Amino acid sequence: MQMLAAVSRLRRFLQEGNPFARLGALLLLALGWLLSPFCWWNDLVFNLPLAWGLGKLLALANPLWFTPGLVLGYWGSNVAGILLMQSSAMEIFHDSDKPRRRARELLIGLASSTLYSLVIVFLVKLEILHFPQIG
Fold first, then answer.
1. Cβ contacts of 88-93, under 8 Å, gap ≥ 24
2. For labelling, which of 31, 33, 34, 57 has a CA lying 20 to 30 Å from the CA of 41?
3. Would the pTM count as exceeding 0.85?
4. How many domains does the chain have?
5. 85-119 residue pLDDT tens
6. Which domain holds residue 14?
7. Does residue 18 form part of some domain?
8. Nearest partner of 92 among 30, 29, 20, 37, judged by Cα
C-alpha cells in the first residue's frame, strides 16, 4: 500500500507544479547519488578529487593537515551526497497536506549518515570489511 502511495506521489510530482522546481529536485537527487556511497564508481571520479582538494587546501595552512583534510573531505562528500538524496527525495515524496519540518529532516539525515559511517568503521575494525591491498 505504501509503495502505491509513493508511486502516486511521484507521478503527481512529475506532472504538477513548477517545472524548474521539479528539475531542480531531480538534479539534486542525481548529484546526491553521485556523491553518496551508494554509487560504486563515484570515489575515483568525484569523492577522492574533492577530498584531495580539501586536503591540499588545508595543507597550505599546515602541511600536517593534509591527511585529516583528505579524510574529512571524503567523509563530508559522502555525507553531502546522502543529505542531497534525502532532501530531494523528501521534496519529491512529501505529503503535500503536511508541512515539511526541514530542521528535523536535516538532523535525521546527519544522524543516519553518521550512523552509516560508524557502521562501516565498525565493520572494518572487526575485519568483516577489508581494504584492498595496494602493491
1. 88/25, 88/26, 88/28, 88/29, 88/32, 89/29, 91/21, 91/25, 91/28, 92/9, 92/10, 92/13, 92/25, 92/26, 92/29, 93/6, 93/9, 93/10, 93/13
2. 57
3. no
4. 1
5. 888 888 877 766 777 787 888 888 888 878 887 88
6. 2-125
7. yes
8. 29
Angle at 22 between CA 105 and CA 47, to 5 degrees: 60
The C-alpha cell that represents 47 in the structure block = 569523492
pLDDT at 133: 63
Residue 109 lies in a domain: yes
**Contact criterion met (CB below 8 Å) for 74 and 54:** no
Residue 22: inside a domain: yes
Q: Report angle CA 76, 79, 80 to the nearest 5 degrees.
A: 85
SS3 assignment for the chain: CHHHHHHHHHHHHHHCCCHHHHHHHHHHHHHHHHHCCCCCCHHHHHHHHHHHHHHHHHHHHCHHHHHHHHHHHHHHHHHHHHHHHHHHHHHHHCCCCCCCCHHHHHHHHHHHHHHHHHHHHHHHHCCCCCCCCCC
